[in-house]
Amino acid sequence: MSVKRAARFLNRIIETTIILFGIIVILALVQHGTGIFTPILREFSNRMAQAERLLDKRTMLGISSGMIVFTLASLLFPLFLRRVNKAQYRVNTLRGIISSVVFFFTQMLYSWAALKSRLHMFASMALAIIATLVIIEFLSHLISNEEEVSFRTDLLSAASSGLAAGIVIRLIQIAAAQL
């Protein structure tokens, strides 16, 4: 493990976060004092309102116990087949689960932020992406140099799939609402 590398990485993240936080505070104070960003924020809010109207339809999805049993059976069945690389299957399944977890949390965050405001929604999605990347980078620094690239690639692809799944589902919901 390379704890020193991970510590250096976290220190850089903390420094960058402090600097960005300072810039945001300064911009917020300027906005509060002068209102210089009001037209830009108003335009952003209007565009987000348009997007929100497209996404306003909500769907109800239920998962039965039969669906859970079927899913578990389909996950375990390939482990009993002769011509399946079980190690590769476990790695790919883990990637899929990571993708699902990222998808779930980003959708949960999106739903919470959508109740607040469009600005909260936009900021929360950006925060989810940044947090995911920081966590992956931190975990990558904890493992050996030989495995780091492969590990980072696996986690990034899984997280990207989860984020992309959220977008695809939203687009399908928009298309279905238009029909």
TrEMBL record:
Q: Which UniProt keywords apply?
A: Membrane, Transmembrane, Transmembrane helix
Say yes or no: keyword Transmembrane helix present.
yes
Transmembrane feature ranges: 20-41, 61-81, 93-113, 119-143, 155-176
Top-level taxon of the source organism:
Bacteria
User: Under which name does UniProt file this protein?
Assistant: Uncharacterized protein
Instruction: Give the originating organism.
Output: Teretinema zuelzerae
